[in-house]
Structure formats: C-alpha cells, structure tokens
Design a protein that fits this description.
Bound molecules: 3-isopropylmalic acid, magnesium ion
Strand order of the largest sheet: 2-1-3-12-11-4-5-10-8-9
Order of helices and strands: EHEHHEHEHEEEHEHEHEHEEHHEEH
CATH superfamily of the largest domain: Isopropylmalate Dehydrogenase
CATH topology of the largest domain: Isopropylmalate Dehydrogenase
Helix content: 40-55%
Radius of gyration: 21 Å
Structural class: alpha/beta
Length: about 350
C-alpha cells in the first residue's frame, strides 16, 4: 500500500507532519511518499499540480492532503492558482464522493456560537458531489453578451449541469452511508428554480426505490441553510451537489465551533481517496506552530478506514484523540478557560503518546 503525502501551503506542512508521525507510530505496512502541491509547487515548478505530483497521487492507494492557498497567489491566472491543484486532483482521480462529517465533540460544546442544547451530540454527514455541477460544467468563460439585460456588454458565464449517472452514483453513496447510520437522507436542491436540480431531485427519488429501508426527504438549499442553524440535529445524512455542498459544509462545520477538528474524505469508485482537513491553509497563523493538527490526524484515520482496510488502526487514532481531549489539552482554536493550551507539535505528541500507551497497556 502506498500513501501520497501532499502537505501543500500555509499550516498544511505543520499539520500533515503530525499526522505522519501518528501513522508512523502505528507501525503498519505501507510506504509514504511526499510531493509539493499548491502554491509550494508553483514556487518550485511553476505549476500548482506538477505532473510528478499528479502521477504520485494517481498511483497511490490514498492521498493525505494538507491545504493549499495563500492570498499572495490571488493575482495569478486562474490555471496557476493553488486551488486548481485540488480541483485537478478531484477531476483526474475521479473523486466524486466527498464525505464531510460535522461532529460536535462532547468536550467542545462550548466552542460553538450556537446554544449548547442545539448542538450537543450533533453528528451530521454531508455528502457532496465533487466532480460535476457548475464547478466543472462547460462551457464557461467570458464573452460579449448577445442577449440578456445588456446586449453588447462584457459578460462571464459558467454552466450548471448534471448527468443522470453522476446523480445516481452519489445518491447511492448517500443511501449506503445512511444504512450504516440512522437511515435518513435529506437531498438538498433548488428544484423550484433550476432545471439541473429538478432533475437531481427526480433522479434521487428514482434511486431511492432501491433503498426502501432508508427515509428520504427533499429540501431547498435556502431552507437547508436556515434549518442548519435553527435545528441542526434534525439532519443526519445530507446529499447535495458540488456548489451547494461547498457552502453548506462550511456552515455545518462551523456549527461545531471547531472546524479545526473536522476531517474529510473524497473517494472514487475504486475506494481510492484523498483525505484532508475541512479547514484551509490559514496563512495568517502558518509557521507559528499553533494550528490544530487534529482534523488532519482524524483524516488519516478516515484514510485507514476507507481506503486502506485498517479499521482497527483507525479506531486507535480516534480513541487516542478523544482521550487527549478528555485530558484537557487544547490548541488555541478550541481553547477555553480551565483547559491547557498547547501547540501543534505538543498536540501531535499527545496523540502519539496516547496511541503508544494503549498499545503497551492493551
Ligand atoms: C473546499 C474548498 C474548495 C472548493 C476550493 C479550495 C477550490 O472550498 O474544498 O470546500 O470550493 O471545493
Ligand atoms: Mg469550501
């Protein structure tokens, strides 16, 4: 088994280093190989996703990814911006199924901006379609308008589109995932306005016939955004398109108050996956050793479970993280009165120690 390690930019390098230490201490049989991606790759090779990095990722069983991006690259031509690396990996590896859990850890209930009773015990799984929709739809570009409100004016356009098989496969992923949880799926659309999402709704409804044991409901995206802050615990599995999923998953993550804790997985149909924290590269705190490595460490656990058939090792990481939180250690983002503030490295040390201790004491 081979893992491609792509730390990327900003805090990416610091947090991935801790996840790699955690993987090392588990002493499993796999090889890890690192490569540059994002702004770091642009600086070194003139491209955010160099051929060698893409090749490594394609050949690996799994990719452990940090984060990409920095304001200093905002002025580059779009194809050279760091974000293109992650979009290119999704497209080239066919990573269509994005799992974004939003879990509120018991010890961190106070970190949310919502009232504790609204989010205590929160456990939502957002399943975002990741290789279609307006993100990848062609045609797109700039042109001179020939119709619309201002014919003759400069305009830009993108194309929102979904094919039936694209919707079918992500719907199946959601129904299968729901079977392992509380058997409820909410499909989020904008069927009241958009053809694409009326079709989405129809196809999801059709696929649902194969999953009569799972409850399905449909919700418009604006209402879903509202319900997420009003009564988030009403949701279980949420399935939606690429753009709505981008927006709603950030909202859901922030409900927990600790985006620094949330892992994510992006899978293709061969179980090959890219695993990354849900937060970004946070250039404002990069290099200071204060970033929370737990989302990346938990992403490594997801990787062991989903792509590398090492569920037991994944359990060991997750229970180590819980025991570290229970012992009161917190990075700055989740710190509160009465807990102990630690840096990135110390948090990694604590997880490694918790794993080693459990190994010794059984
Ligand atoms: C995400 C990010 C990406 C997206 C960006 C970095 C391209 O926001 O993974 O949610 O929009 O998908
Ligand atoms: Mg996003």
């Amino acid at each position: 088994m081979k893992i491609a390690v792509l730390p990327g930019d900003g805090i990416g390098t610091e947090i991935v280093a801790e996840a790699v230490r955690v993987l090392d201490v588990l002493d499993l049989q796999f090889e890890m190989e690192s490569a540059l991606v994002g702004g770091a790759a642009y600086e070194a090779h003139g491209h955010p996703l160099p051929d060698a990095t893409l090749k490594l990722a394609k050949e690996a069983d799994a990719v452990l990814f940090g984060a990409v991006g920095d304001w200093k690259y905002d002025k580059l031509d779009r194809p050279l911006r760091p974000e293109q690396a992650i979009l290119g990996l999704r497209k080239n590896l066919g990573l269509f199924a994005n799992f974004r859990p939003a879990i509120c850890y018991e010890q961190l209930v106070g970190a949310s901006s919502l009232k504790p009773e609204l989010i205590a015990g929160l456990d939502i799984l957002i399943i975002r379609e990741l290789t279609g929709d307006i993100y990848f739809g062609q045609p797109r570009g700039k042109r001179v308008a020939t119709d619309g409100h201002f014919p003759g004016a400069e305009e830009a356009f993108d194309t929102m589109r979904y094919s039936k098989p694209e919707i079918e496969r992500i719907a199946r992923v959601a129904f299968e995932a729901a079977r392992k949880r509380s058997k409820r799926v909410t499909s989020v659309d904008k069927a009241n306005v958009l053809e694409t999402f009326q079709f989405w709704k129809d196809v999801v409804t059709e696929v649902h016939k194969d999953y009569p044991d799972v409850e399905l409901d449909h919700m418009y995206v604006d209402n879903a955004a509202m319900q997420l802050v009003k009564a988030p615990k009403k949701f279980d599995v949420v399935v939606t398109g690429n753009m709505f999923g981008d927006i709603l998953s950030d909202e859901a993550a922030m409900l927990t108050g600790s985006i620094g804790m949330l892992p994510s997985a992006s899978l293709n149909s061969n179980k090959q996956g890219l695993y990354e924290p849900s937060h970004g590269s946070a250039p404002d705190i990069a290099g200071q050793g204060v970033a929370n490595p737990l989302a990346t460490i938990l992403s490594a656990a997801m990787m062991l479970r989903f792509s590398l058939d090492q569920a037991e090792a994944a359990d060991r990481i997750e229970s180590a993280v819980k025991s570290v939180l229970a012992s009161g250690l917190r990075t700055a983002d989740i710190w509160s009165e009465g807990t102990t503030k630690v840096g990135t490295r110390e948090m990694g040390d604590a997880v490694v120690a918790a794993i080693t201790k459990k190994t010794i004491t059984g």
